[in-house]
Automatic annotation (TrEMBL):
<dbReference type="InterPro" id="IPR005877">
    <property type="entry name" value="YSIRK_signal_dom"/>
</dbReference>
<feature type="compositionally biased region" description="Basic and acidic residues">
    <location>
        <begin position="569"/>
        <end position="580"/>
    </location>
</feature>
<protein>
    <submittedName>
        <fullName>YSIRK-type signal peptide-containing protein</fullName>
    </submittedName>
</protein>
<dbReference type="Pfam" id="PF26363">
    <property type="entry name" value="Phospholipase-like"/>
</dbReference>
<dbReference type="Pfam" id="PF04650">
    <property type="entry name" value="YSIRK_signal"/>
</dbReference>
<feature type="region of interest" description="Disordered">
    <location>
        <begin position="569"/>
        <end position="592"/>
    </location>
</feature>
<feature type="domain" description="YSIRK Gram-positive signal peptide">
    <location>
        <begin position="6"/>
        <end position="30"/>
    </location>
</feature>
<feature type="region of interest" description="Disordered">
    <location>
        <begin position="47"/>
        <end position="117"/>
    </location>
</feature>
<feature type="compositionally biased region" description="Polar residues">
    <location>
        <begin position="106"/>
        <end position="117"/>
    </location>
</feature>
<keyword id="KW-0732">Signal</keyword>
<dbReference type="InterPro" id="IPR029058">
    <property type="entry name" value="AB_hydrolase_fold"/>
</dbReference>
<feature type="compositionally biased region" description="Polar residues">
    <location>
        <begin position="57"/>
        <end position="66"/>
    </location>
</feature>
Length: 592
């Protein structure tokens, strides 16, 4: 199991002053005593010269404009994606030609939400609740929710999951193409449907099925990005709980790192590694995305791009470069990744996070998105710039850094690079980027860290500069934003609703209906056949309901028969005298 661990050691960046002597001292400080070096790729191609940035005020959006896809590529970049259905590792960086910042909700990558809008809807009733419990009514695609099948029968006025929402407020029935299905506003058996820790009644109506990304999540993804792709995939595999023997443990650690067990519980059921970036400059980043096996949750509602901090010699080279106020290639790579994501339709709500060098790269990526949106010096069409502006304002949500250096500039920095430092602070002051620091960071000292008016100081920690400072026991008492509802502790094994481990999407494989007479009523018996996804075993549920009340009751129908008229011959009647009639006796006809 040790092979799956990423054995890279993190190294810190130092403050440097301009000058050859300082650089030499810096090299001596940064040489690692041990560590695994990243494989060397082909050298990066030259990058186009950029003009000075002059931000434009305003907040203009244009979702119909298009971007020119002829942007600067990320040179010598290896991207990896989780292997599924026999697919091999993807070693090319592909960019989808699309509009930056357009409405991404209709893209194929985002599973249809559980709340259809253009269908006929019905409120939950006791009769519908019985049909849901039996599996007669389920989700589209012949999918049944195991919690609804195996849990208590719902009742419209009941609060089954104790989230202060009635069952009829959480569940409804909708009709499509003549067939009825279950629709979810939230899950009536789960008080926190989307798993972000916040109970359903505390979330807005459009948030109950979508993960609310918090600073707590930024801490976890920041730390998880330090591990290799295989271990990340293992941590996010919720179907197999992470055991203590699998927990990452670095040489010198007194105990395993339980934060990975916490990630397995809290993130695993709802997130996956979508893609990883490994460039020849040494940049490593992981793109995470919401994805679950639960049919009631839409996929692709949020993404987190986490940049890894210093972990090998190439990262140290970047540290030295940025420490002397110059432009490291990893910063350029981060900018190009942002340009790629701006054109990717599957990116719907993007967050950035990183520690140390990773936090620096977060700033470079955020600045690139800002300058693409608001620089009047970038060479692009007005439509392209409006599209980038829409991406920055509506799709790119926030960046969060931990113990990161600022975008340092020096006398040897170009005019364009000076502007990046200014724009980074401008973004932070606007609230779109948050910088956390500790009091006792001996690596990122005053003058190298971001200015005091744009940082949040969490105080002294045992770990100092280490990313693990943010997993210390009292951290949640210092910063309430590190708590997300029921997800509280950062130094334990995490929170998870016990019901989550039993949730399955059961396949309906058959349904038959038989009608019979019971007393005076017609009874409909519906038998549903279901296949267990784990064992393949077929089980059956039968629901009996009155199809027609008194539909089989014996009925006597009496129909009156009108009397006939008979004419009698009368030889004594004079000519032209009125005829004499004699009426018959009225009668009835009885039918049972």
């Amino acid at each position: 199991m040790k092979d799956i661990f990423n054995k890279r050691q993190r190294f810190s960046i130092r403050k440097f002053s301009v000058g050859v002597a300082s650089v030499l001292i810096g090299i001596a400080l940064f040489i690692p005593s041990q560590g695994v070096l990243a494989s060397t790729e082909n050298s990066l191609p030259s990058v186009e010269k950029r003009e000075e940035v002059q931000p434009i005020p305003g907040n203009q959006n244009n979702t119909s404009s298009e971007l020119d896809t002829r942007d600067v590529p990320i040179g010598s970049t290896r991207t990896t994606e989780p292997v599924t259905s026999g697919d091999k590792e993807n070693n090319s960086l592909t960019t989808r030609a699309s509009v930056a910042g357009e409405d991404r909700s209709s893209t194929p990558a985002v599973r249809t939400a559980s709340n259809p809008s253009e269908v006929k809807k019905y409120e939950l009733t006791d009769e519908y609740a019985k049909q849901i419990k039996a599996g007669v009514i389920g989700s589209e695609g012949n999918k049944l929710d195991s919690l609804l099948l195996n849990g208590p029968q719902l009742s419209p006025e009941a609060y089954t999951d104790n989230d202060y929402l009635k069952d009829k407020e959480e569940l409804y029935i909708y009709e499509k193409d003549g067939k009825k299905y279950v629709g979810y506003n939230s899950h009536p058996m789960l008080e926190d449907t989307d798993g972000d820790g916040i109970i359903d009644s505390d979330e807005k109506s459009d948030e109950k099925l979508k993960w609310n990304v918090s600073e707590r999540d930024m801490i976890m993804f920041m730390e998880l990005s330090y591990r290799d792709d295989n271990y990340i995939d293992r941590v996010l595999n919720h179907k197999k709980p992470l055991t203590e023997s699998e927990l990452y443990k670095k040489n010198g650690d007194s105990k395993p790192r339980y934060e990975y067990m916490m990630m397995n519980k809290e993130l695993g059921p709802y997130w996956e590694r979508k893609k990883s970036y490994h460039t020849s400059s040494g940049l490593d980043a992981v793109l995470y995305e919401t994805k679950s096996d639960f049919s009631y949750l839409p996929n692709g509602t949020a993404q987190v791009l986490a940049f890894r901090g210093t972990s090998d010699v190439k990262d140290i080279k970047a540290d030295i470069t940025l420490g002397t106020g110059r432009n490291p290639q990893q910063g350029i790579d981060a900018e190009n990744i942002m340009r790629e994501l701006a054109k990717d339709k599957s990116i719907t709500n993007l967050y950035l996070t990183g520690h140390s060098l990773g936090g620096y790269l977060v700033q470079r990526a955020m600045v690139e998105a800002y300058e693409l949106a608001y620089s009047d010096s970038r060479v692009m069409s007005p439509k392209e710039q409006l599209a980038y502006r829409n991406f920055y304002n509506n799709v790119l949500k926030k960046g969060t850094t931990f113990n990161a250096p600022k975008v340092v500039t020096s006398l040897v920095s170009g005019r364009e690079f000076w502007q990046k430092g200014l724009d980074s602070k401008k973004i932070a002051k606007s609230g779109k980027m948050t910088h956390y620091i500790v009091d006792n960071d001996s690596t990122i000292r005053k003058g190298v860290s971001n200015d005091s008016d744009v940082v949040i100081n969490v105080g002294r920690t045992s770990g100092g500069h280490s990313s693990r400072s943010y997993f210390e026991a009292d951290m949640i008492n210092r910063r309430s934003e590190f708590i997300s509802g029921k997800r509280i502790s950062l130094d334990g094994t995490g929170y998870q609703d016990k019901k989550i481990t039993t949730v399955k999407s059961v396949e309906k494989v058959g349904e038959t209906a038989v009608y019979s007479k019971r007393g005076d009523d017609i009874i409909k018996s519906t038998t549903v056949s279901m296949k267990n996804p784990d064992t393949g075993q077929i089980t059956k549920n039968t629901l009996e309901e009155v199809f027609k009340k008194d539909g089989a009751k014996s009925t006597v129908v009496v129909t009156p028969i009108q009397p006939s008229i008979r004419y009698e011959k009368d030889t004594t009647r004079a000519k032209d005298e009125s005829k004499i009639t004699e009426a018959g006796t009225p009668g009835t006809r009885t039918v049972t």
